[in-house]
Design brief:
By secondary structure, the chain is mostly helical. The chain has two domains: 42 residues, no CATH class; 221 residues, MetI-like fold (Orthogonal Bundle), CATH 1.10.3720.10. Helix content is 76%, strand content 0%. The protein has 14 helices and no strands. Helix 5 crosses helix 8 and helix 6 packs across helix 8. The longest helix is centred in the middle third of the chain and has 36 residues. The relative contact order is 0.14.
Length: 315
């Protein structure tokens, strides 16, 4: 197991290096000029040339890449070229707790809804409960998260005034301020993912329920609850965990629209603003962080396989 983890970590590092190389060159293919975005109409040709030299954009592209790449390996992601030249690391560290908090709460909500819904749907196939879960999954998958976010704001923030409509409060300010600002966007994001996970649990459990050991469990007189929770559900987790791992990684990067609706300056919003401003260092740093979460999520899922199914061994 240790050798497998070491190999995966080395492979993950190589993937991250490849991502860093690709994002550096691909962001420069995006139409637009960062200097024009910074100076707008007030910049003279002399000011433009001075700004280009200051940012090192007059150097050959390969030289720019080598400088950025070597600094990145030392933990320096550069400084934003838009605004007050704030370090990219500082920008990401300010945004990351907000995105992680939103992703974590959305993930919990998705699991709380999906696990019982998926199990009930599988154990009561073709019943009213199964049809209700299928309808919920259909609505959850087809309903845009920004539309649900606006609807939640209208109902719970504007009309009932139970919860704040926008903003973010850190956990250090207290649990309720943190929770009250995140519950609505978390519901908006987690609903769609809960539909995906619930459908995966249902299909995986229906397949497991046809196995010989399930018929043996039934012949021993075990209750349906014991059959489902102790035998069917644990053995149906392998494909479900795969989907859950992908879902969590997507939550880190996929909450851009909802973050904008609720005015939460998370990692997704930072990335979009960086692209709009042609802020190369910010985009490069944000993409690297998002890629790291995808790589680590895949590694965690692979390791969980051995925990869930003792027959799986890595060598």
């Amino acid at each position: 197991m240790a050798s497998y983890i070491l190999r995966r970590l080395v492979g993950s590092a190589l993937v991250m290096l490849a991502v860093a190389t690709l994002v550096f060159f691909m962001i420069r293919l995006v139409p637009g000029d960062p200097i024009a975005a910074m100076l707008a109409d007030s910049g003279s040709p002399e000011a433009r040339e001075a700004m280009i030299r200051k940012l090192g954009l007059d150097q050959p592209l390969i030289v720019q890449f080598w400088k950025w790449f070597t600094n990145m390996l030392q933990g320096d992601l550069g400084a934003s070229i838009y605004g007050n030249n704030q370090p990219v690391t500082t920008i990401i560290l300010e945004a990351l707790p907000r995105t992680l908090s939103l992703a974590f709460l959305s993930f919990v909500i998705a699991l709380v809804i999906a696990i019982p819904a998926g199990i009930l749907s599988a154990t009561r196939k073709n019943s009213a409960t199964d049809n209700a879960v299928s309808l919920f999954a259909f609505l959850g998958l087809s309903m845009p998260d920004f539309w649900l976010a606006i609807l939640l704001i209208i109902v719970f923030a504007a009309n009932l005034q139970w919860l704040p409509a926008i903003g973010y409060e850190p956990l250090s300010a207290g649990f309720w301020p943190w929770f009250s600002h995140l519950i609505l966007p978390s519901i908006a994001i987690g609903t769609g993912f809960s539909a995906i996970i619930a459908r995966m649990i249902r299909s995986s459990m229906l397949e497991v329920m046809q196995a010989d050991y399930m018929r043996t469990a039934a012949s021993k007189g075990l209750t349906v609850r014991v059959q489902m929770l102790r035998h069917a559900f644990p053995n149906a987790l392998i494909p479900v965990v795969t989907v859950i791992g992908i879902a969590f990684a997507l939550l880190i990067s996929g909450a851009v629209v909802v973050e904008n609706v609720f005015a939460i300056k998370g990692l997704g919003r930072v990335l979009i603003q960086g692209i709009q401003n042609r802020d190369y260092p910010v985009v490069q740093g944000a993409v690297l962080v998002v890629s790291a979460f995808f790589v680590l999520s895949n590694l965690a899922v692979d390791l969980l396989y051995a925990v869930i199914d003792p027959r799986i061994r890595y060598s």
